[in-house]
UniProtKB/TrEMBL annotation:
Organism: Allokutzneria albata
Low complexity biased stretches: 1-21
Membrane-crossing segments per the record: none
Stored Pfam families: Amidase_3
Domain MurNAc-LAA, first and last residues per copy: 111-233
Region (Disordered): 1-54
UniProt-listed GO biological process terms: peptidoglycan catabolic process
Keywords: Hydrolase
GO molecular function terms listed in the Swiss-Prot or TrEMBL record: N-acetylmuramoyl-L-alanine amidase activity
GO cellular component, one term: outer membrane-bounded periplasmic space
Full protein name: N-acetylmuramoyl-L-alanine amidase
Amino acid sequence: MPSTTSAEAAAPAEPSTSSPALAGKTVVIDPGHNGRNAANPSIINKPVPDGRGGTKACNTTGTATNAGYSEHEFTWDVATRVRQALTARGLKVVMTREDDNGVGPCVDERAKIGNRAKADAVVSIHADGSNSATARGFHIIYSAPPLNAAQREPAAKLAGTVRDTLRAKGFPVSNYIGKDGLHGRPDIAGMNHSTVPAVLVECGNMRHPEDAAQLSSAAGRARYASAIIDGILRYLG
Ligand SMILES: [Zn+2]
């Protein structure tokens, strides 16, 4: 249980009024990929700095369920649900893309959007595409080893909090990557470039039938969004 500054913030995250602890807080929501990435390979394959001295592709197309429901559509849907709920609670929400019909932005630029906004929390939303028939469950990625103070305790706390709220909504932790739903990585440029607390949520494996059923249904996406909202509010509260 993270430390809280008021009894209201410690309560289940459903009250209709804003907590004073949340006033003035800024959250950046980063819906992974974009709807026109696949049609613009020359743009999204362009190398950009990865934050550790190497390069990474500007962006990727993302994955899809076996039935063809795309990751970019999933991340956009969940992100807009999260934005709507947090805005209603009085938080300032900045999105890294404004619709699901564009290209990019590149992963380093996504991180800079969070940095420029001086975000109190950044949550990137993704879903994975493992071809292993048994791989399922969510995991939270953060930058490791950390490159600055925000990537140490604050990012670790944000990762643990969102892991806990996803678990509380009944989502299973990954059985194929990371440990207890957490996975520190050095190769995720969007996390490496962040100078504010940032995590990336891989909500599930789009290739696994049970995960895909959640990821591609409106009810499932509402539950993912609700868990992420709870995690952000608990972290900030
Ligand atoms: Zn992704």
